[in-house]
Amino acid sequence: MNRGSFLFVESNTTGTGELLMKRARLLGFETYLVTRNPARYPFLKDSVAQVIEAETRSPNELLRVAAKLTGLAGIYSSSDYFVEAASSVAMEMGLPAANSEAIATCRNKWKQAAELQRQSITIPETRLATSVRDVENILAQATLPVVVKPVSGSGSSGVRLCESVTAAIEAFESARGALIDQIGLPSPDILVQQYVEGKEYSAEIIACDGTLHCLGILAKHKGPAPFFVEVGHDFPAPLSEPSLKELASFAAGAVSALGLEFGPAHVEFVISESGPVIIEVNPRLAGGMIPVMLSHVLGTSTLDMVIRLYAGEGFAPPRASARAGAIRFRLAHTSGKLKRLGFSRNPDPTVPEMGLLKSEGVEVRINGDFRDRVAYAVGVADELDLAAAAAERMIESVVIDVEAAAGESGNNQDAGLSEGRWTLHPEAMKLLAPPIEISRDGRVLQYQAAIDEAHLVMLAEQGLVSQVAAADLLKHILDLQDEGFHSLEGRVAPRGLYLAYEAELAARVGPGKAGWLHLARSRNDLNATISLLTLREAACSISQEIGILQDSLLQRAEEASKLVAPLYSQYQIALPGAPGHYLLGVFFALGRERQRLHCLLEDITNCPMGAGAGGGTSIPIDPLHTASLLGFELPPFNSLDAVASRDHHLQGLSIFSGVSILLSRVAQDLQVWTTREFALVDIPHNLAGGSSMLPQKKNPFLLEHIKGSASTVIGGYVSAATATCKAPFSNSIETSNYGCSPLRLSEEALKRAIILTSLIVKFMSFNVQSMRENLEDGTAMTTVAAERMASRGVPFRKAHTQIGEISRRLSLNSSVAERRSELASHLADALPASLEECRDALRFGGGPGKGSTDSQVSVAKALFRDMQLKCGDIRERWARAEMHRKQKVKELIDKYRST
């Protein structure tokens, strides 16, 4: 039976792309694939479709191809990147198709997020970034961790979980080029989304004539962070029947909100503590072999459903099935040539389908996305547990062998290392050398790679290392960075992180070339340089956080400049003051700490690289060049000082401690001022908590976190100082490890305290009436009255004594008005007529008077601008050094790419 022609516009390179074409042929269609590069599809050798080579990125060209086909029944694309183009051409040809504008909105995840938010569909907080500065600005206001991903992408390509600002910036740079080798296009627009904690699911939906049919809800299994590679799916998701129906309705609501009224949709969402959250809606059939598994479970081909739908034959929802299914994938964990791949057992009846996604002899590269999968297995049974167990047994039987570099042993970990003979006792290894975790060690690995880039460029330009060898090493270092060092995840490092990293390079490039990497350097100057890179990033990051807090303080100070509030001394009311005066005081105190951070950053001028183990080197290196490529101004001046000293760290931790002490004092004041007895400020409910027992109680508990964080920061300084004080003046584990390791915890604790303080300052409210109540009896104005009497010739001590006696005679049983009246009767016109008059009289010595406060605000704004510019200049200098280094690396690699 010939049903006419069916045109596929490009395709998935694995999985359902090939299967759709095969099913179309079996259904009786003459199958065509239009593509600009047939070489992308190895399965074409099996003649699954007739190939038409054309520019698929041109709508006119696609229309021309479609118009030439006889009896064209339908047009479809299984590729995320071409569903819009396929839809547009189908609409032009009068064939069944989804609305191309709706697809375009879905494909652009920024537009999708905006539309879902507009329609009140719950999504993660999402921001758009087109530059590193955008990322920094976004993260200045966001809560880590975040997810960074391309605006238009698929299969988790370029999607990374980021626990730090540094990781997010690196992920941003990586994501911009993540799709180039797939579709030949860069990704200039990147999303930064708040990470939503919870179990992940997907809903598989098919729309026909505006009616949405949910085929089911699946539970996802993910590979290790920071990647989001899907390693398995369970159907139906192990949830109650009412929950499954609610989630199907929730997912359908998102599809409907985006205007998708025809064709398949794959909806991904997370169930968080507060309910389901849409991650994204994809206007296509699910990937990851999900349609294959569903076909086995439902007893009817989901691929056939889609083909018939797009051929205009309508859609008949499948009957509900009592069976369950599971998919499991095997990932490659090391890059290299795939020497052997296969299943070591035969499938039993509960495994109706399995397959290999890579062929022996191909080069495997770890990408951190769907391309890392090498095999899959589908399990189907009456119970989900049985289906999952069947798929897992099958996938665990996969035998995979990645060929090591020539001359290497099979142990990549120790390949080429002269120190490989040192084997740490297993018990000691547990304590001192835990397996590598990218979430913990990623920043150090990034600094290591940056130092390697600078060192190799210098060695090559000095003629100390062959430029060909340097270029090859640099290419593999870039590969490791692009992969997020994923191949090192979980690797044991008995001799430290660096040697495990070096071993991976040796396994990729060969020990001959890798052996040049460590010329004229030691782990001592490496570690000292890494510690300074870590410190300056931490100090600059803290400066940026302080800047955000200063901005909030300044805004609230201006807002509250006309208010009157008690000024306290030893928790006793002293004078009429102003909340703006208090906030400005905190602003200036923070400013001095920030200035100390900037002075520290300016003082970190000498790069330790070149100092070796503490005695320099006999090799004629150019350490100034290495230093400049890493954003330092000078090389080491004294090699022993370069590797032995950690005074910058102690100074940084000291400044961190100063900031944390200041914030703790502010938190103490605010906590007292929130009490009913003081009632000067109020913290909003979303920055406070309740009591598990006392229904009336409102706890400003974030203030306690701010105070508690100070203990971690101060403890970090004491710990580092104690570790360093008895260490010899040379490189030692006490200084390089225990003297520097407290920095990370201190930075995290201080950031937490600053961010929490910023939130409270920004959103707390002032209780204007309460601030005035305890001032209305006039006693707080008696100091100004005494000073006025002194200005009229009465000795101040005499005036002080007289007013003190009058104040003591005032009866606390009398009303506020009566006490105020009695004071006025004794002090005549010396007593200010109003609280505002009294406050504004305090205009000298930096007091809270309006004239004084206005001057302070002007100075604060100028200081704030200068500090912001200074912080920006420091970051800009580092960015220029990095750009220069990356350009040098690129020039070397490009020069010898064909060698």
Automatic annotation (TrEMBL):
CDD domains: Argininosuccinate_lyase. GO terms for cellular component: cytosol. Signal peptide: none annotated. Keywords: Amino-acid biosynthesis, Arginine biosynthesis, ATP-binding, Lyase, Nucleotide-binding. Its EC number is 4.3.2.1. InterPro entries: Argininosuccinate_lyase, ATP-grasp, ATP_grasp_subdomain_1, CPAse_ATP-bd, Fumarase/histidase_N, Fumarate_lyase_fam, Fumarate_lyase_N, L-Aspartase-like. Residues 113-311 form the ATP-grasp domain. It catalyses: 2-(N(omega)-L-arginino)succinate = fumarate + L-arginine. GO terms for biological process: L-arginine biosynthetic process via ornithine. Pathway: Amino-acid biosynthesis; L-arginine biosynthesis; L-arginine from L-ornithine and carbamoyl phosphate: step 3/3. GO terms for molecular function: argininosuccinate lyase activity; ATP binding; metal ion binding. It is an enzyme of class 4 (lyase). NCBIfam families: PRK02186.1 (NF002563). This is argininosuccinate lyase. The lineage of its organism: Bacteria, Pseudomonadati, Pseudomonadota, Alphaproteobacteria, Hyphomicrobiales.
